[in-house]
Design brief:
The chain is α/β, with parallel strands linked by helices. It has helices at 4-19, 23-34, 38-65, 77-90, 96-109, 116-128, 141-149, 153-163, 165-176, 192-201, 228-231, 240-249, 266-274, 288-301, 356-368, 390-399, 423-426; strands at 181-185, 205-208, 215-219, 235-237, 256-259, 280-285, 306-310, 324-330, 371-381, 403-405, 408-410, 413-415, 418-421, 431-438.
Length: 440
């Protein structure tokens, strides 16, 4: 009988491969269905994310000892081999024998018993040779980095053109590193000092975010939702880059803001903090279930100034024209700046990204009409590709002389109206923010 943590991990990976599920959502759902918690849930999560982060590297190693190509194996054998290889190569606290034996049991449990001998042989060879594995192709930077850090070659090629070799490798390594949980302090209820003291009393390790005031980095959290400070709304789970958006927008108490692509609501919540919960924020999304999440989040945080509306960011609403001091467009994007938190994002097909700038431009064009004279338009994404970022805003500004980029200050220095944040530089998600002001 296979270990429950590994059985659940395999079910998650199978769902991701066959149904196109996102790992974080599939993992949360499967942990609930299988009733895993504590040590088993932690091991399951580590295996799922570890395999996702290292899939190309694991397949490279497996190919060296398997007579068949991994992607030609009958499923779920490729997932089982990747799970076993990950445990052998990356999890020091798991004995190799346990990784091998549990993988063999998984093959039997998922009706692949006839292949259990192959699983056993391949993983034993990896275990025996893990200190002398086949060398990676270091002579070719693009292929080497793609395999070493398990990012597709098309993305590595793009990053090399943007960052160069050294910083590209730092970015890829950051995508595979353990990421601290970042939270934003709710100033409506507490202070950073008081929240730090409370969390530390509850056994959480807390440190100030290195680049973003008002944010803390947590570790040793366990079940976040069980913390009294969470239930009482003293903090918001929010990356430092996203927390900067309201600061850059310059929202003020008593102002009126529109968030056209608001779900799950984090940037609207940050804006409410900056506005001292005075004024009006209209948070929009297409789907009612997402709007409910925004309302529930606002209630937990003690925010009263947020209203919600079901609206398509690309469709005109005549009553909103010229009605807002600040309009935020957090546009749908490739998400390539948050691979470190959603590791399966890296495996998106590049063709699926081609239409995004068209969608982003349409939303930005529409949202711009809602900005009052003298008001501010902020465009942001959680990606690092210029074609989704500065190329979109530059094209917009070229045809809208009534708007211009306006400089803003960041903890890391002054900018000329736009900034791309990088995990290897700033300790945040990869993120783009552009601030534009409409002429009075």
């Amino acid at each position: 009988m296979s270990n429950p943590a590994r059985t659940t991990a395999l079910r998650v990976l199978m769902s991701c491969r066959t149904n196109g599920a996102w790992a974080d959502a599939a993992l949360k759902a499967q942990l609930g269905r299988d009733g895993l918690s504590g040590v088993d849930a932690a091991l399951c999560s580590r295996i799922v994310y570890g395999v996702m982060q290292n899939r190309l590297l694991l397949d490279f190693v497996i190919r060296a000892y398997c007579s068949q190509k991994p992607d030609h194996l009958q499923q779920p054998l490729e997932d089982i081999l990747q799970m076993g290889a990950y445990q052998i190569l990356f999890l020091d606290k798991v004995p190799d024998s346990a990784a091998v034996n549990e993988s063999v049991e998984l093959a039997k449990a998922f009706k692949r018993g006839q292949a259990s001998g192959l699983v056993n042989a391949v993983l034993r060879k990896i275990s025996q040779n893990k200190d002398a594995l086949p060398p990676l192709p270091e002579g070719e930077a693009e292929r080497y980095l793609s395999i070493r850090y398990s990012h597709p070659r098309w993305l590595v090629k793009r990053l090399l053109g943007i960052l160069g070799r050294e910083e590209t490798e730092a970015f890829l390594a950051a995508d595979n590193a353990v990421v601290p949980l970042t939270v934003q302090v709710n100033p409506l209820k507490t202070t950073a000092e008081a929240l730090t003291a409370r969390l530390e009393r509850e056994g959480v390790t807390v440190s100030a975010h290195p680049g973003v005031p008002g944010c803390l980095e947590l570790s040793g959290v366990g079940d976040l939702t069980a913390l009294p400070a969470f239930r009482e709304g003293e903090f918001l789970v929010q990356d430092g880059a996203a927390a900067l958006v309201a600061q850059i927008a310059g929202v003020q108490p008593g102002g009126r803001m529109l968030d056209v692509c608001a779900a799950p609501g984090g940037k609207s919540f940050s804006a409410a903090f900056a506005m001292e919960d005075r004024g009006e924020i209209l948070a929009c999304d297409l789907h009612e279930n997402k709007l409910k999440r925004i309302r529930d989040g606002a209630a937990r945080l003690g925010i009263t100034c947020i209203q919600t509306a079901a609206a398509d960011g690309g469709c005109a609403h005549g009553e909103w024209v010229g009605a807002f001091d600040t309009v935020l467009v957090d546009a749908p994007c490739s998400g390539l700046g948050i691979i470190r938190k959603k590791p399966d994002t890296r495996y998106k097909k590049p063709d699926s990204l081609l239409s995004l700038p068209v969608v982003q431009t349409a939303i930005l064009e529409n949202a711009a009409t809602y900005v009052r004279p003298g008001g501010v338009l902020v465009y942001s994404t959680c990606t690092v590709l210029p074609e989704e970022n500065e190329q979109v805003t530059d094209a917009f500004l070229a045809t809208h002389p009534e708007f211009e980029k306006t400089p803003f200050a960041l903890p890391m220095g002054e900018t000329e109206g736009q900034v791309t944040l990088w995990p290897q530089r700033h300790g945040t998600d990869g993120f783009y923010i552009c601030r534009m002001q409409r002429q009075a």
